[in-house]
Amino acid sequence: MYSHASESLIKQAREIQESELQKFYSRLMKMLQGKELGHDTVDSLQRLHLILSATKYTRTLPLELQKRFVALLSSPAEQHQVLSTAVLRETLPLTGQELNYNQDNLGQLNSHAAGLLLSQAVSKGDLSSLCTQLLRNLESRPSEGPTHSLMHTLPVLNNVLTHSPECLSEDQMTLVSKKLVDWLRYASVMQGVGTSSGGFFTGPRSRQPVPIAELDGSVSGDFFTVLCVGQGFTEDQWMNVYSFSMLRHWLLTYHSSCSTVDADDRSEVDGSVVSMVSATSSSSRLLPPKERLREKAFQYCQRLIEQSDRKAHKKTDTELQKACLVEAVCILDCVCAEDASLVYRTFPCIKALFGRLSSELSNARVLLPIAQFYLNHGEMAAVDCENVWKVVFGRFPTELFNDPFLAHELLRFLRLNVESIELRVPQYTLYFPNLLKFLAWDSPAMVDDFVDLLPSMVTTGTAVELLHTLLDLPCLSATLVLQHRSTCLPISEPVGRSFVSLDAFRNPSFRGLFLFVLRTEAGSGDTIDRLSTLHELLVEAADWPRVTQCARTVPVLLHIFFNTIVTIADEKLLAHLILVMLERSSLLLNIPAYIKEIHRVFSCHLLRLCKLHPSLVVNQSHELLEFAGSTANVYSKEELYTHVVWVLGEYLSVSCDSRCSVSLITSCFEALEAVLFEITSSAPPTGTVCPAPKVINTLMSALAKLASRSHDLIPRVSLFLSKLRTVTRSGSVAWCSDEEDLVAIVTRGEELWSLLKAPGVAQSVLTPPPHVIAPQWHRDTNVALPLQLRALTSLTHSQ
């Protein structure tokens, strides 16, 4: 893990003697008393940090040395701040020492010292004391203090609120709200004095204040915001920036819980009246502090939205505009959730902003907070949200499926609001083919999101198409790769490696296949007729990294799909899904490991569906018999075939479904008998291996079960089993290469033969009644077992 030199240094630090450590403390103390701290001091500080951090025991520094380190926190050199903070974090704070720093040096607070103060707060009382000092500093700051004295106050306060929101009293919350209003709305509109470059012409005229400017270079005609620029900034302008950065957190922490009742009451008032009252009171200074802060936050965000429409000269300023828009819309969402009357004043602005930004995909990440606003307040304002969802669920995945940041933000939006979206956006479930593009493109990063989202996409109307889509997810992944390559590599440009699939993607005759895979919405059909053709065109994509990663996620999603569908589907839909499983078991992209896993999932859930609804076996007996009667399925779909045969033998019974007739049992028996005879009388086809003993044993067991329900079939089973024993006695057979497996098969056959000699016993053993399968004797008060269990319990738990 470490190099030899590093391990040597760590070992020396751990084994340092106490006497040597005290001498090192003395030398370091002398260095820190000097006027200038050179490289030797920095090296010593680094060595001290190594000594303190290399051992699991926490050390205590001498009092004077710790005071020096506390004083070093205010050093103008950031390297000294970092090292002193790191050293103090590794030591036990002296009693009251951290509070002394808080009281004496709060005016020179910086981010490193703030982090140390928070880390050394051992109780909520310490945090409350820290908040009191911070707010006292805000309230009564000397006017002659340094210009940077408040720079870190709000970030520290914000961190405290994150860890312990209850540490502020009502009066302190009121004070902070008032200060935030002052900084947000009444910051200076003149530029701060920039750093002078010196020189002969430096004088009073060169330092005359000038108005702040907008991002397009024009002079600002309104109050200061984070989107105003200048050569320098005053302290209250910096506090304006800090206030805006913590405003949403402050509103969510302290305002939401206090205004829920008010918002509920106001929401029943007529919108136009409330809007008029709010508008007339917006300029009043008589509002309570919380309502006044809410009003100023509303005005501030509207000004930011207006400023974002200006053409910025720098690309970085354009990105800043987008970031501020995201925060502004989120804050507007907060204040509208607190005060319903603001919804009617805000929606015209939000609607215009969406109209301005929706045409450019580069604004995608800004449009998500707008979609959140529409989701939260669109119903109350009676606004048509259809265009918003067409952009979010339609255009974004279609054109930006390869943008990882947008994919993360959009899926996070869905996860946080899945219940509201299901309730208010009914067309959401129709966009699953489009949303799955994110997963098909970057499966490892997105699979956790879709594990949570997939149940919301499963409905009785979309279940069949969704199952087909999940099975074709590797095809979607390959198609997205081809689409990306097609746009990056023009047709006229020669490609170093020839891709047959890329030529097919560009071929108009196959365009319909790929367009179906890339469809935006569900409803155009469950699947396509030429699915095998599509798999042939994409055969070379089987070893592409994205495709193989995508294929690994499909079994996980299929388990979630079936676990969800059994809770909402009726028997008719489940019967259709069984047909899809049987059909699609041979229509999968040729990835051997993928095909094997899909067959395993199908087998698991086929058993589960039939156990929940045994009548499904009779309903789908024709298709199941057709599948089980194909000898090729024994070799190509061993797992699924075994479970289909077991289901037929287990549930094709009058006890499971009264419609089960003797003719149906006989036809099933004959189909399975023919397959068993064929695979045990000849060698396996070329290129295949011998069938597993599990397949042959399951076939024999199924035949024995069916014969026990129709005694006319018992002689035929007995004849086959006796022949099987005779054939195996002559030596090895072509259909079983392992001697132990052959012994297991013969043993199973002899057991079944012995059972069938007594038909009544065979039926009781092979088809036991329900009360034998699921006994309730321990609950039956008419038998002695419950009494015995209670007696044993009282003896073993006697006090």
From TrEMBL:
<dbReference type="InterPro" id="IPR056856">
    <property type="entry name" value="TPR_AP5Z1_C"/>
</dbReference>
<protein>
    <submittedName>
        <fullName>Adaptor related protein complex 5 subunit zeta 1</fullName>
    </submittedName>
</protein>
<feature type="domain" description="AP-5 complex subunit zeta-1 C-terminal TPR">
    <location>
        <begin position="449"/>
        <end position="795"/>
    </location>
</feature>
<feature type="domain" description="AP-5 complex subunit zeta-1 ARM repeats">
    <location>
        <begin position="320"/>
        <end position="437"/>
    </location>
</feature>
<dbReference type="Pfam" id="PF25153">
    <property type="entry name" value="TPR_AP5Z1"/>
</dbReference>
<dbReference type="GO" id="GO:0044599">
    <property type="term" value="C:AP-5 adaptor complex"/>
</dbReference>
<dbReference type="InterPro" id="IPR055450">
    <property type="entry name" value="AP5Z1_ARM"/>
</dbReference>
<dbReference type="InterPro" id="IPR056857">
    <property type="entry name" value="TPR_AP5Z1_N"/>
</dbReference>
<feature type="domain" description="AP-5 complex subunit zeta-1 N-terminal TPR">
    <location>
        <begin position="1"/>
        <end position="279"/>
    </location>
</feature>
<dbReference type="Pfam" id="PF25154">
    <property type="entry name" value="TPR_AP5Z1_C"/>
</dbReference>
<dbReference type="Pfam" id="PF14764">
    <property type="entry name" value="SPG48"/>
</dbReference>
<dbReference type="InterPro" id="IPR028222">
    <property type="entry name" value="AP5Z1"/>
</dbReference>
